[in-house]
UniProtKB/TrEMBL annotation:
Domain of life: Bacteria
Domain annotation CBM2: ranges: 582-690
Cited Pfam families: CBM_2, fn3
PROSITE patterns: CBM2 (PS51173), FN3 (PS50853)
Domain Fibronectin type-III: from-to ranges: 494-585
Keyword tags: Carbohydrate metabolism, Glycosidase, Hydrolase, Polysaccharide degradation, Signal
Keyword Ligase set for record: no
InterPro entries registered for this protein in UniProt: CBD2, CBM2/CBM3_carb-bd_dom_sf, CBM2_carb-bd_dom_sf, FN3_dom, FN3_sf, GH, Glyco_hydro_b, Ig-like_fold
Name this polypeptide is given: Alpha-L-arabinofuranosidase
Signal peptide: 1-24
Species the sequence originates in: Winogradskya humida
Amino acid sequence: MQMPHLRRALASTVLLATVTAVTAAPPGAHANGSTVAPRATAGATAADTSVAVDVRAGLATVPDTAIGVNHAIWDAELGTPAVSDLLKNAGVGMVRYPGGSYADIYHWRDHTAPGGYVAPNTDFDTFMAGARRTGAQPMIIANYGTGTAQEAADWVRYANVTKGYGAKYWTIGNENYGNGHYGTAWEADDHADKSPKEYAANVVAYAAAMKAVDPTIKIGAVLTTPGNWPDGIVGAGDSGTWNQEVLARAGSAIDFVDVHWYPGGSTAAEALTKPEQIEDAVYLLRQQLDSRIGISLTETNVGVGPNTQPGALFLADVYSGLLEQGVFTVQWWNVHNGIGTVSTVAGQTDYGDFGLLSSGNCTADGTVCEPPLNTPFAPYHALSLIGSFAKPGDQLVQAGSDNALVSAHASRKANGDLAVLLVNKDPDHEHTVALNYHGWTPAGQVPTVDSFTNGSAGITRTTAGTAGIQVLPAYGTSVVTLHPAAAETGLPKAPGRPVITTVSDRTAEISWPAATPGTKPIAKYEVYRQHGGASEQLGETTGTSITVRNLEPGRRYTINVLARDTAGGLSRASLPLTFTTTSPAVAPCSVRLRDTNDWGNGFVGDLEITNNGTAPVNGWTLTFTWPTHWQTVGSGWNATWEQTGTTVRVTSDGTLAPGASTTAGFVGAYSGPNVLPGIFTLNGNVCTTR
């Protein structure tokens, strides 16, 4: 489910405050647990953007591996004290080695990569020394393309038995679906059979050999991110997609999956819309996985302005969005990458460099040179902001914005503070943001604001605005840190993560592990549905299970459970539960939609419609709604097809006899995760979806 904008929820709230004030009165507290900014005095500036933050809508807890980067053996600065210290200062907790596609030609024992360049002093021990200086865990890529299971097992033995490094995370290969099986080849692969079945068989063999040396390690397999090539494509001789084939054969042998995400975009403005796809992409990926399997996203970057402000804004939005969805590490490509095509982006020189730090090199003709070696580029400063915004142990909570050009994220700190990350993707205008809080009341002090703006040399820290109003600079990113109005002591602990017992089209039975009381006994549990930073309560109970009613068929819900004690104190939110209600079990019609042929950004859809009633249907209209705005119907047959917004109407003057079926088809297009619709109505009746 797309995080909804808050126009409907907040349209009736007009928030004004003095933006030049140096002190602020405590915001007014409401009975429902929300707070709003105080009304302004003369000279106030009206807010043009509303942001809601709801601490009752808990998302993931930040792990110590969350903030990651890539190292590459062709980078002579790999592991140097200067680079390691810069990464440490940015809060990096995981570093990946030996670097992208080089992993599938790299032989660790003699530190060679036939066909590629290996820089001096980039061997595994040097890398580990740098990782330890940074305070980061390693993620190591075992050579699948030109290596063997034995070579990988020997590497584990050297790392964890001989040297005692305790390297926990190991992936088998890099982008192995790029070996030519789907018609495009960039990844080395010496196997005669380049199918996902062969990759899966080798993952099983690698995992067995490596865990025989050290059973405590975690093994990752390469998958593709939903909505990114070759997602959806079934290769010649395969019975399913890359992900389906790999998981069917190797799912029981792995502990996590390793995906990359380069969503593209022909302009900076388009590229900066891509983070809105994250929730659906992770949702679709989780649908494919056993619940015990984690997700790592080990490469991402932006296609426009990679070392200027678009790269910084993209990084801040993407790291936050992925970590909110429970991805255990997000890793930028790359620490150093080198000069590319030089351009001007938002008034700044962009060197086309996908690195966080300058490589200090020049174009081939020597006319343009990068800043001195290791000068931080804009994305590095954004990474530093994320490193302070999302520290290990912080609980990310839901925030929503009513302005498509302003993204909002929030984290709740162990000491009770709340940090709000605001990303202004508008290159030309600042935005005055009204901040609304639910389940939490800010203190009256002027907040601390850490900002990185277009063209700045680094992050600035100041105290500015109020808890209710902040001015966000054009093309800027700010972290606003606020203290709570009262100390959070003696409260119950958060309940355990809820689980679904049963779900139907209208109800869901939910249960959860009991919370540990604080200084007062627990009086009840409250269940909230996440809704764009302003949750709605679905019910409450004195027990540890509840049946939630009056749900909508075929809709995705994310809920949290909180414990309230006898003094009214409220715990922190449980980890979230996401589920989708079903279609009606019995209905006057049934519909089956199949993706019969997919090519990565489009597909052929086949609809089968059945009349389950006892009377004929003379003329019919089938209606469904795409879950996202990036899905469209291009053309259709056997009926008349029309799309308005995200709603599709399929009409026919044909007759459907009782028990009879008819088919219609269409060509669909998508430019992001292709979440198929789950609910269809025929002449106004909700159908069973088969």
